[in-house]
């Protein structure tokens, strides 16, 4: 029993150290190890980026904005209208920007305005209600909201508070993956 308890403590401590190392990259100009983006992350755009199809999913936080693969979108408190503060490679690896012109998924009526702006690095990034949007590399399955509250500055884009219902992707299909906090 004591061994199981010690393993849990080690697992939690290891996860916390790994998360803090990755988060240290955000807001610092230094080099940091970066995790590869998840399957739901968007690759940096060329000058003619494909449209980013956005939708909604039900999570424990309520209804959140998601990309076409059902991954939760986030905003960063340090961003300003038309400007991303997440521009160094470490931050962009952990918080991949949603690139290209944003459009709602078929049959989805989003309760906000989609737009784009050109970042200082030349990437066209999608915005929701004027705020740049990102995915989180630590979300490994659709419907997860692990990035909500990270460093007190990253927030899931909650379009309807509440929650508890199973997650659905931008194309309306359900997921069986669990929803977890960070």
Order of helices and strands: HEEEHEEEEEE
Largest sheet: 4 strands, mixed
Structural class: alpha+beta
Give helix % range: 10-25%
Question: Would you summarize the structure shown here?
Answer:
This protein has helices at residues 2-24, 89-94; strands at residues 52-59, 62-66, 74-76, 102-104, 114-118, 124-128, 131-132, 154-156, 158-161. It is α+β, with helices and mostly antiparallel strands. The model is unreliable at 1-37, 43-47 and 165-182 (pLDDT under 50).
Can you lay out the helices and strands and say which pair or pack?
Elements: H1 2-24, E1 52-59, E2 62-66, E3 74-76, H2 89-94, E4 102-104, E5 114-118, E6 124-128, E7 131-132, E8 154-156, E9 158-161
Parallel strand pairs: 1-4
Antiparallel strand pairs: 1-2, 2-9, 3-8, 5-6, 6-7
Signal peptide: 1-24
Region (Disordered): 163-182
Keywords: Signal
Structure notes:
The structure is a single chain. The chain is α+β, with helices and mostly antiparallel strands. It has one domain (2-161). Helices cover 16% and strands 21% of the residues. It is built from 2 helices and 9 strands, in the order αβββαββββββ. The chain has helices at residues 2-24, 89-94; strands spanning 52-59, 62-66, 74-76, 102-104, 114-118, 124-128, 131-132, 154-156, 158-161. Strands 4-1-2-9 form a 4-stranded mixed beta sheet, with no helix packed on it. It has a 3-stranded antiparallel beta sheet with strand order 5-6-7, with no helix packed on it. The protein is globular and about 35 Å long. The chain starts with a helix and ends in a 21-residue tail after the last strand.
